[in-house]
Amino acid sequence: RHWITPRFTLGEAGEGEAFCARFSPDDLYLAVASGAGSIAVYNALTGKKSMVLGGGKDDRLPTTQVRWRPTQALSKTKNVLVSVGADGRVLHWHASSGKCLHEIVEPDNQLFCIDYVADGTQFATAGRRREVRVYDESTKKLASVLVGGEEGMTPGHSNRVFSLRFHPTMRNVLVSGGWDNTVQFWDLRRGHAVKAIFGPHICGDAIDISEDGEVLLTGSWRGGKQPQL
Question: How far apart are CA 188 and CA 166, in angstroms?
Fold first, then answer.
């Protein structure tokens, strides 16, 4: 048996439960999204809090997931963090200065997940609606909406979507999972899901794909067989 001792214990009373935590691409910062709606950015080397993004409002809904913009993105601005929340907002933050750079609102939606394509030129969101919305990073405009499925293969999602990943080697493919016990494979060229895996009950940021694109990992909320490859 091996005991692991934490290097730092982060967080303070009143910040709410943590919904998502992500290291920056250079591993210098750790962003933690909270149920209170704010995002705490910590120095990963010292454990000290560097910045709080979106704090100061008592009526904020949870910030459900965050992603750092890939360093390959064409923009010269670095340390850009993108968040989604239960209020349907997509916010671009400059984590170094604390400034909100851009805001997108998806009306009548609650957002639970977001992901970037590897080169940072596009990002996708999903949540309460049974669809995936893809945006252009440079213009922040909606590029496409993926909904439904391939006849005879999959109808697409039938419930909330909680996890979303761009495929690392096929930029036109996304993978998502949620409450409907399916993992859906979406093709941007077709505009809908093209196949599915039945079984995983995804309730959080619990889908990942190996760098070579050959292995899919899921984590389910249930009594047994939670991680599956």
Answer: 11
Residue 122 corresponds to which tokens in the numbers above?
Answer: 């596009």
146-180: per-residue pLDDT in tens? 999 988 899 999 999 999 999 999 999 999 999 99
Neighbours of 15 (CB within 10 A): 17
If you ran DSSP here, which 8-state letter would residue 140 be given?
-
Check: pTM over 0.90? Answer yes or no: yes
Long-range pairs of 191-194 with CB within 8 A, sequence gap ≥ 24:
191/144, 191/145, 191/146, 191/147, 192/146, 192/147, 192/148, 192/149, 192/150, 192/156, 193/146, 193/148, 193/149, 193/150, 193/153, 193/154, 193/155, 193/156, 193/157, 194/149, 194/150, 194/153, 194/154
